[in-house]
Structure to design on (522 residues):
């Protein structure tokens, strides 16, 4: 379970997040939707510990991680898939997956577990990160993120640059993990269709604050309003 | 034939010596991107640790292969913990701080140990190749350089710690997001690079001797070699050391040692003009 209360953070003297509060229950998913520049990525980076929090609280599964460094948050259960370049460019995909398995100090598991979930990966195992396409990098980043066996996933626009068939595969996989492994998911997205298909709740982010939160069913019924909210016109 | 064999051995020795001088910097600057201007003094401290320990009656090999790396590794731990870590990657501050450290170590060595050269006679005696006599220690230096490089390759390629270090050096933020303790990895990598510099300083001490300012003769060549090696630090440094060591020694044979030094610089300038990102910026990109 992820509970964020009154989170404020920014880049140096420039404030970006303005009192964000979020509550994501175990085994549920929340999407944070918003246009570019509204603070979605900043929220993800602040939750993961890459930006200093000026006020507010982040509680993960009952543990206050607000002052913890990123690796401690990862060890507490966060899995973070950053936007764009979430891979090591000069390391083979095989080593990246091994890395994700052992980074928290655990014994290396069997690669076949993760490869079964990502059928596109086996032919890519000996390629380095810089030899992958944008979409392949997204998939490798997600596979690495899941290989750390997180309890709560922070996904920053995971479908960006992905072909539709890969988007469907990811949707199916994440839905399965949410249901069967009680994975908690916080998703920053602009792809409304993907977000509403995966998530139970949707929040609209505008100017660093949560402007509205609603169950996904309500959003599906009022897609016009969501479009306007995303465009910052409501 | 004998002449060719002796020339070949000298060329190999020059390549191995340069690789040894550079290997610690390949780890500290090539991998961690820490500009350690005190690298030459790390070698100097390694040399003194060996000479003093051996002079105090300790077994020669323990003094060289254990004491010197341990002393400089400990020095590296303190430098990383109390200086480098607090500079948070600020390049100018790091240059100034390590330059200051370099001057401090030179001054300290001169004050405590004096300005005269100290050394240990190269062990193993000599071997006769035709009418030429060559020190057996030459073979030892080549062997240590090869073994050190191979061990470092193996560690980076196959060990779990090596894998974690590689990721933390390439993309610290991603490594931390996956749960790796990047601060500890940086610290232990700095200690490893320091210990390797200490080993190099000790291994070269019987040939070059030790004096407080000997670091200056190492540091420029080391930086030129590691920079010419490019982004893939270990492979790049090994290849650049082989190229520069060969060129420098060959030119020295054909003319005199100072011409060898000039040849090294000319080759480095031409190489960086043709390959601005170093050897591994274009070739061997998958290497370590």
């Amino acid at each position: 379970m992820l509970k964020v209360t009154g989170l404020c953070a920014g880049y140096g003297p420039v404030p970006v997040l303005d009192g964000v509060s979020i509550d994501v229950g175990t085994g549920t998913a929340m999407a944070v939707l918003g246009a570019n520049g509204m603070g979605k990525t900043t929220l993800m980076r602040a939750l993961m510990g890459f930006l200093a929090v000026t006020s507010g609280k982040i509680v993960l599964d009952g543990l206050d991680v607000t002052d913890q460094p990123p690796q401690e948050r990862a060890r507490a259960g966060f899995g973070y898939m950053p936007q764009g370049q979430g891979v090591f460019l000069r390391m083979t995909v095989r080593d990246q997956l091994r890395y994700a398995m052992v980074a928290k100090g655990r014994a290396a598991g069997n690669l076949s577990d993760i490869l079964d979930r990502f059928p596109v990966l086996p032919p890519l195992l000996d390629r380095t990160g810089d030899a992958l396409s944008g979409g392949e990098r997204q998939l490798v980043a997600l596979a690495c993120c899941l290989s750390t066996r997180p309890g709560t996933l922070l996904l920053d626009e995971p479908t960006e640059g992905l072909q539709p068939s890969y988007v469907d595969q990811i949707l199916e996989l994440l839905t399965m993990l949410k249901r069967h492994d009680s994975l908690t998911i916080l998703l920053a997205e602009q792809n409304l269709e993907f977000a509403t298909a995966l998530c139970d709740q949707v929040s609209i982010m505008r100017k660093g604050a949560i402007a509205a939160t609603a169950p996904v069913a309500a959003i599906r019924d009022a897609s016009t309003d969501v479009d306007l909210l995303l465009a910052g016109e409501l | 034939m004998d002449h060719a064999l002796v020339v070949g051995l000298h060329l190999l020795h020059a390549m191995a010596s340069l690789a040894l001088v550079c290997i610690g910097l390949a780890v500290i600057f090539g991998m961690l991107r820490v500009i350690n201007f005190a690298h030459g003094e790390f070698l100097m401290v390694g040399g003194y640790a060996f000479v003093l320990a051996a002079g105090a009656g300790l077994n020669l090999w323990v003094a060289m292969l254990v004491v010197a790396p341990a002393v400089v590794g400990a020095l590296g731990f303190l430098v990383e913990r109390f200086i480098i870590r607090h500079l948070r990657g600020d390049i100018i501050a790091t240059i100034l701080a390590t330059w200051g450290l370099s001057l401090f170590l030179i001054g300290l060595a001169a004050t405590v140990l004096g300005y005269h050269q100290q050394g240990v006679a190269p062990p193993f005696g000599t071997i006769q190749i035709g009418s030429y006599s060559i020190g057996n220690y030459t073979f030892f230096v080549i062997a240590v350089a090869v073994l050190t490089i191979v061990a470092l390759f193996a560690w980076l390629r196959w060990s779990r710690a090596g894998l974690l270090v590689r990721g933390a050096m390439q993309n610290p933020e991603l490594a931390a997001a996956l749960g790796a303790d990047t601060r500890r990895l940086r610290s232990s990598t700095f200690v490893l690079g320091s210990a390797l510099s200490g080993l190099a300083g000790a291994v070269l001490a019987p040939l070059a001797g030790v004096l407080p300012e000997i670091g200056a003769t190492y540091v420029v060549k080391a930086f030129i070699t590691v920079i010419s090696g490019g982004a893939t630090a270990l492979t790049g440094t090994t290849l650049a050391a082989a190229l520069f060591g060969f060129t420098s020694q060959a030119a020295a044979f054909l003319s005199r040692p100072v011409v060898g030094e000039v040849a090294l610089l000319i080759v480095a300038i031409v190489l960086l003009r043709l390959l601005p990102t170093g050897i591994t910026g274009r070739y061997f990109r998958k290497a370590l």
Remarks:
- Residues 134 and 180 of chain B are 49 Å apart (CA to CA).
- The two ends of chain B are 37 Å apart (CA to CA).
- Residues 2-31 of chain B form the longest helix (30 residues).
- The domain at 2-282 of chain B is CATH 1.10.3470 (ABC transporter involved in vitamin B12 uptake, BtuC).
